[in-house]
Amino acid sequence: MTKNADTITVAGVQLNTGLFINNEWVAGRGEPLQSIDPATEEVIATIQTATPEDVDDAVAAARNAFENTWGTNVSGQERGQLLFALADQVEQNIERLAALEVVDAGKPCAWARVDMEDTVACLRYYAGWADKIHGTTIEIDDKEKHAVARKEPIGVVAQIVPWNYPILMLAWKVGPALAAGCSIVFKAAEQTPLSTLLFAELVRAAGYPAGAFNLVNGVGAVTGDALARHMDVDKIAFTGSTATGRRIAVAAAQSNLKAVTLELGGKSPNIVFEDADVGEAAKWAAFGVFENMGQSCSAGSRVLVQAGVYDAFVAEFKRQAEAFAVGDVNDPKTFQGPQVSKLQFDKIMGYIAEGKKGARLVTGGERHGSKGYFVQPTVFADVEMGTKIADEEIFGPVASVIKFGSEEEGIKIANDTSYGLAAAVHSQNYARVQRVTRRLKAGTVWVNQYTLLSHAIPFGGYKQSGWGRELGAAGLEPYLTTKSVHHYYGGPFEWPINLSKL
Ligand code: NAI
Ligand code: MG
């Protein structure tokens, strides 16, 4: 392995393009990977990737750290201090991290900054948990026995994230894993590796022991698959498409039955009832589907509107969609930048073409400009369930507005999907809000709001939107395992055993 792999400068930030293993940069032996700026369509970086052998090296480093210098060798208090130090490092580098996400992911600069601030908050939240991870004592028989159910870190974890929120998705995974004492082999998405290269430097600067956090970039089918099949990875955490999540679950089952958590796609219903404040509902609905260029797993891409307010809502929703500033990612006023890649752009334009065949195009429906992967905020009304734009995750700035009559019908349409990540209810009627939220099959339900999450509130999916939860106290659980220790201090073992005492 060659030390000191190449460095490059992107957006004024110097980056090492190699793999980060044992707190050192090493050369990746895989095919180099080009990263593109989706606003200009130009290649901005070529980075190194990990072969399955490189993945073995990274897992070995993580294992060595876990057994000897990290894991249960380090107290919760120290783990907390390290994680606070890492959050400080991120905070000091917000501008540089955000600049990288602007050019690599196409995020408008103001929104890239918001992601970084959320990242710092998320890391600090989990730093606070590190010394509050307690097991339980279970009294069985106060004269003979009690048990202690210890909470221990689960071990070496692989973490694979997508490209829509590169560093924020990292924080959701790395925060609880490091708080728990797990060691990590991390893979960023091939479209957006750059900010994670800088993050690795910050891990080292924060003072983590070598091997606690390792970074292996690469494409899913090679590097990701090697992680999912690895025999010495104890747990894999994944965010991305349902198709890839399914592959990862199969790879885990076919290898060492590693624990799996999956944060997958959605086709989330945003339900507007006749008793809603229609103006407010339209604002949240527009934000809910167009935020991050529609590239959010929880995007409210099905807007279900009750007949009595349907026309008024569609008019207001159109006005909101047309008010968003699309274009220059370096202008702080810009709301919407380009889609992340040509592949995603083409896929979205394909869905728009499908939509035009059956539904009513209210606004948008075309490429924005002629350079970069920009798509106009697009609203289709009178969309029928059973059509592609009503059923499939588009992952772009495309809303499907669907009309419903009764409350019962609204709930039925909302739940008529294989996904179950998020939903929202807009209504001023308290009893209705209670009735409907209870019946929605979704891991997150907003009432009179949309999109806004908090690191303190669990997030995850019902049905094919995933397994497990991230964020909040629930987000720590997948990184912990329980060891029940039975303490016996009764009399001598007597044979034959008195069966009535068992
Ligand atoms: P993807 O799910 O294939 O990629 C996400 C991550 O998984 C990347 O890091 C990728 O390298 C990795 N990966 C891919 N194949 C793998 C494998 N066999 N084993 C292990 N890791 C693997 O998503 P992709 O192709 O970028 O986007 C396709 C669609 O997925 C989007 O159009 C969107 O509908 C959905 N998606 C959903 C996201 C979410 O937040 N739920 C995020 C990104 C995409
Ligand atoms: Mg890129």
UniProtKB/TrEMBL annotation:
Active site location: E263
Source organism of the structure: Cutaneotrichosporon oleaginosum
Protein's recorded name: Putative aldehyde dehydrogenase
CDD domains (UniProt xref): ALDH_F1-2_Ald2-like
Alphabetized InterPro entries for the sequence: Ald_DH/histidinol_DH, Ald_DH_C, Ald_DH_CS_CYS, Ald_DH_CS_GLU, Ald_DH_N, Aldehyde_DH_dom
Classification lineage: Eukaryota, Fungi, Dikarya, Basidiomycota, Agaricomycotina
Family in the record: Belongs to the aldehyde dehydrogenase family.
Residue stretches spanning the membrane: none
Single GO term (MF): aldehyde dehydrogenase [NAD(P)+] activity
Domain Aldehyde dehydrogenase: 25-485
Alphabetic keyword roster: Oxidoreductase
Highest taxon above the source species: Eukaryota
